[in-house]
């Protein structure tokens, strides 16, 4: 029986070694997984901190660029004020000279004198007949009249 006992003992001894090896590998796997998780967390924190810094830098850059561009925009605006377009229409016939703006103003004044409100004017059409020295108007496609030039 001694031979059998040794066989069983050796079988037991061999069976305990793989179990211990299995436990060791399981512990190593857990330790490795824990290390990997810690490394991931550290990497994520680093990425978040890096992106926060980058976001702050990116947010600051457009402000700096906008500040640099703002004075450049003011200069052309000043030029536009200097070079405002002047659009005037003059009607000349013999000794008569009048601007289209003046004729429209006279038509509006005549309309208001008839008892209407100037704010009610939505459209105005003026027909100038210099040979008659008259301007005829139609306001809101309803009221017609004439004014002398």
Layout of helices and strands:
Elements: H1 2-82, E1 90-93, E2 96-99, H2 100-113, E3 124-129, E4 134-139, E5 143-148
Antiparallel strand pairs: 1-2, 3-4, 4-5
Main sheet properties: 3 strands, antiparallel
How does the overall form come out from the CA principal axes? Answer: rod-shaped
> How would you state the average pLDDT, rounded?
74
- Taking the alpha carbons of the first and last residues, their distance comes to 144 Å
Count the helices. How many?
A: 2
Stretches where pLDDT falls below 50 for ≥5 residues? Answer: 8-15
Using only C-alpha atoms, the radius of gyration works out to 48 Å
Number of strands: 5
Class per helix and strand makeup: alpha+beta
| Strand arrangement across the biggest beta sheet | 3-4-5
Topology pattern, helix = H, strand = E = HEEHEEE
Helix content: 55-70%
Strand content: 15-25%
What can you see in these coordinates?
The structure is a single chain. The protein is of the alpha+beta class and about 150 residues long. Helix content is about 65%, strand content about 15%. It contains two helices and five strands. Strands 3-4-5 form a three-stranded antiparallel β-sheet, with helices on one face. The longest helix is centred in the first third of the chain and has 81 residues. The chain starts with a helix and ends with a strand.
Characteristics of this structure?
149 residues; alpha+beta; three-stranded antiparallel β-sheet; two-stranded antiparallel sheet; 2 helices; 5 strands; 64% helix
Give a short overview.
This protein is of the alpha+beta class and 149 residues long. The chain has two helices and five strands.
């Amino acid at each position: 029986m001694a031979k059998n006992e040794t066989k069983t003992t050796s079988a037991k001894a061999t069976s305990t070694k793989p179990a211990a090896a299995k436990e060791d590998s399981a512990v190593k796997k857990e330790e490795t997984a824990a290390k990997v998780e810690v490394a991931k967390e550290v990497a994520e924190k680093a990425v978040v901190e890096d992106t926060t810094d980058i976001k702050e830098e990116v947010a600051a850059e457009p402000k700096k660029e906008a500040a640099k561009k703002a004075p450049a925009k003011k200069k052309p605006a000043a030029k536009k004020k200097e070079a405002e377009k002047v659009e005037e229409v003059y009607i000349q016939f013999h000794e008569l000279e009048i601007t289209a703006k003046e004729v429209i103003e006279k038509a509006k004044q005549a309309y208001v004198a008839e008892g209407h409100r100037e704010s009610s004017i939505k459209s105005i059409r003026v027909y100038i007949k210099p040979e008659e020295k008259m301007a005829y108007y139609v306001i809101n496609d309803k009221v017609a009249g004439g004014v002398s030039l």
